[in-house]
Write a structure and sequence with these properties.
Layout (H helix, E strand, L loop, with lengths): L2 H5 L3 E6 L15 H16 L4 H6 L6 E8 L8 E8 L7 E9 L4 E10 L1 E2 L5 E2 L3 H11 L4 H4 L2
Antiparallel strand pairs: 1-3, 2-5, 3-4, 4-5, 6-7
């Protein structure tokens, strides 16, 4: 584990591949990886006491402005996936989530990627991340002191 992992831990969420997620060859359809990314970021917020619904009730919407997925190894029906979701602290004007999808006892990497999100108000105008989101990002990605790391 690196210092970056300690100061910016990943949220780990389990998802099982259902039959409807697969194509005629028995592999998970490529578009489902974006859905699993969404599950990862939804649970990322929820685990920190901030549901997506609450963010929207505060008048902030987080549409995806860019998405990328690198497919490394296929997944099949009934595989249990671990979606690791982590914030990218380098992005200041919006929010970027990095993802890794793992499976199996050895947690084999199946895919990695990211989504970049703009912050928008209810009128559809792009806005800076509001204070409550900016503060959450700072808290989750700020370098910790040696005392905090080893506590």
């Amino acid at each position: 584990m690196t210092d970056a992992d300690l100061t910016n831990p990943a949220q780990r969420t389990s998802v099982r591949v259902i039959y409807g997620d697969t194509d005629t060859m028995g592999f998970a359809y490529y578009g489902n990886y974006m859905r699993w990314f969404e599950i990862g970021r939804t649970e990322f917020f929820r685990s920190r006491g901030l549901a997506y619904k609450t963010i929207e009730e505060k008048g902030v919407f987080l549409p995806v402005s860019e998405a990328f997925c690198k497919y490394v190894a296929p997944v099949k029906y009934d595989d249990v996936l671990i979606v690791e979701t982590r914030l990218d602290p380098a992005v200041k004007g919006g929010i970027k989530f990095d993802y890794r999808i793992l499976t199996g006892k050895k947690e084999r990497l199946c895919a990695s990627g990211y989504t970049l999100h703009a912050c928008m108000n209810p009128e559809g105008r792009v806005i800076r991340p509001p204070r409550f989101l900016a503060q959450l990002i700072r808290e989750l990605t700020a370098p910790s002191s040696p005392e905090t790391r080893h506590a």
